[in-house]
Each structure stands twice: as structure tokens, then as C-alpha cells.
DNA sequence: TTGCAGTAAAAAGTATAACCATATTTCTTT
DNA sequence: AAAGAAATATGGTTATACTTTTTACTGCAA
């Protein structure tokens, strides 16, 4: 026994995934949909509410509802919700990220092109220029690792990695603000990574990323000791 | 400018995570909540609708809404939604799973106890008994890998791995139904894995899991060639 | 006392209608 | 032609009534 709004959600989803309602397309108004499906506007509103939470549509008051690409960050939100109920620590999260990064590096070495290297070098240089701007530095760090993930040519890696990083971005931010010198070591790691990848030296690249994660682990420890993060 | 139901969602979420509304607790009725928050029932319904989609509560018509643990499978659903929009293939998914499995094995070898081994052996034996029941075999395979993930003592691993496996379960199921002999090799891998872990032989365990994934990769290829899966 | 049927109460699900706030469009005025 | 004002469309909210499902109670019969 399914409810009316659930049926409508299913129908709209199928219309979205079959491109009858392509990305960017405006949905009919709530009143219009109510007529089409022969239900009350209430039911339509609940269906739209569900689709919005799932990130499939975006609603603007006074304008309408539009089909959107679901944002990768929804994964981070979902994982965070679940983590709360499974006694998960930041260290657990970082452990999984480390595995992910290693897996990424292996595949980057298999598939990266010289253009990928150029992109990484560019981000590296941008970070050099931003050693005084903590916010910008953290942002570029996310970009660096995401670009690395993109070099695998497996679209799942950037999606997952950015989600994981999102959950620990405040650590990087707080620590860099506390000890700006930490940026130097991070940059050394980044440069070593690019070079190791260019040379196809998997072992070196992996040991570098492990060191990089180890630093983050210590940063978490320090911030916890000083009660800056929970 | 936030809407009313969004505010209520935030408030209810905080009450859930702070255990003012513990798991299993029945929420006040919609009318009751409408009175408490001084809004209409519609607004409450939309808020409840959101919480339900996020897996924080469960609603039963005629009974009420109850606080529930968010189910790990929500991650699979979220990832699946996003995959659809990023041209992700089953092979991409499997590649990420392989990295996850390797990461799991490394940590299992660090932390597994003899009880963990016993559990794995038990599932292995159950699978031996179920060589004729494809459904049961697939179910136990999921259990085996999830138990392996649990042996890491990092709660994130079983959550993520079961999500990933969930998305490829139909592959295992269809292929085993097509070629039941494939169960023999899978079991060989499982046994080899347990033994390698017991002996702390990381390299052997990892190469075994890679072979295990390689088989799955070939199964996907065959099923795609025969148009059994997309 | 036990067991069952019927009924009433409670709660979620659905339907209408009306009103508000905002964004877009159209039309008038300059 | 540009600026401004009015009309229109849309989502957000409120209120009320009716429906369906579940649960609890009550009273009768074995």
C-alpha cells in the first residue's frame, strides 16, 4: 500500500532519468501538476519536497521547480548522518580516505595524461601564491586532491573523495590557521606527489600520500587536545 | 530566507541527535506538533516528509512517526542517484570497491581477533552448505565481506562496503544463476582470504582479493555481452 | 474467566479553498 | 524607448473537512 505522493515521486523520477524532464527543465506549477495527476496540491507539494531532499530538483519561490543534477555533496551529508549513529570518529573517516587516496593514486598512474599533470602543477602554483590566505589555501587543497581523483578518469573517485574531504575540511582550516607553517610541508607533499606520478613511481607516490594523511592525523590529535574540535 | 518546515526539520534533528527524542521514540502526532510549533499541519507534514526521506524517522499510517537509526543503505541510494548523472559504469564502481577491499584487508590484518576469524569461518561453512541456493549464497557473500569489513573495528568500512556491494549484488546473483560453478572459485578465494589473514600475510590476502574482484569484473563483462545486465 | 466481535477513538492520508509573498510579465505613462 | 505600475503566475502557509488505518475498549457469549 503506497501513498499517493510516493507514486508521484516515482513517476517524476522516471521522467527525470528518462530525460523527458531534462536537467534545467522547469516543472509544471504545483497547481498544474495537481490537475495532471488528479490529486490535491498538498500531495504534489509533498512529492516535490521529497525530490528536493534527494537533490533532484531545486525550488525557487515565485518562479517554480527546476530539474537539477544531484550534488555530490549529498553523499557527504548522508554519510555524516549515518556516522552519527555508528560511533564513528574523525580518525575512522581519515583511515577510509587514506585507502581511497591510495586507490586513486594507483589508477592515476595508470591513466593520467600530461594535461592532468599541468592542471595539478597549476593548482600547486596557485597554492604557493596563497600561503597567506588560509581560506583560499584550504579551498585549493580540496581542488588539488579532487583534480588528482579526476585524473583516474573514474567519475566516482572525485565524487567520493570530495565528500570525504568536505567532512574534514574544518580540520585543515583550523590547523592551518593555528600553525601556518604546516602549509610548507603540505606543499612539499603535493609537489612530491606530482613528480612521483609523472615518473610512474607508484611506491613513492603512495608513501607520500600516506605521510600526507599521517600529518592530518596528527593535526586532528593536536586540535582535539586543545579542544578546538570535538 | 528559510521556510517554516526547514526550521522545524532543523529543530527536530537537533532533538533527535541530542537524544531528547531517542531511537524508537514516538513523535507527537501531527496535530500536536502543529500546536507546539504554532504552524499548520501541512508544514509539519512537510517537515516529517523530509525527515523520512533522510531516514531519521519512520511513519506508519494510523500509528504515528517513530525515530529510527538511519539505514546504511541510504548511502547506496544516494550514490546511485549521483552515479546516474556522472556517466558511471559498473566497472567504475567495482574499481572503487577493489580499493576499499584492499584498504579493509590492511586494517583487518592489523586488528582482527580470533573471534573475527571464527565468524568468517562460520559464514564460509554456511556458504558451503548453500551451494544449491543462489539467493542464499549471494546473501552470505554479502555477509562475508561485511563481516570482514567489521573486523577492521572501523564502523565506516561495513557501512560503505555493504552499500557498494548492494549496487552490484544483482551481478553476482545473475552470474551465479547462469554458471553455478563460479561458486567454487569464489569459495576458494574466501578460504584463502581467511587463512592469509590469520597468518598475517598481507600480500597474499591482497592478491587474493584482487583476483576475487577480477572474477567479478569478468562476470560483468559476460553478463553485458549476453545483454543480461545493462 | 476467557475469547471474540463490534465499536469508538486516534492518527496519518487526502482534498479544497483561501490568503500571502515574491517573481515575472504586461501594459501604461512619460 | 525607458521607467514604472499593475496584473498574473508561482510557491508558501493556513484552515477545515473527510477518509483510511490502527489500536484500544467494551460488552456479550461460551
From TrEMBL, chains A, B:
Origin: domain of life: Bacteria
Pfam families on file: FCD, GntR
InterPro entries: GntR_C, TF_FadR/GntR_C, Tscrpt_reg_HTH_GntR, WH-like_DNA-bd_sf, WH_DNA-bd_sf
Ranges annotated as spanning the membrane: none
Domain HTH gntR-type stretches: 2-70
Entry annotated with the keyword DNA-binding: yes
Swiss-Prot/TrEMBL keywords: DNA-binding, Transcription, Transcription regulation
UniProt KW Amino-acid biosynthesis keyword: no
Name of the protein in its database record: FadR/GntR family transcriptional regulator
UniProt lineage: Bacteria, Bacillati, Bacillota, Bacilli, Bacillales
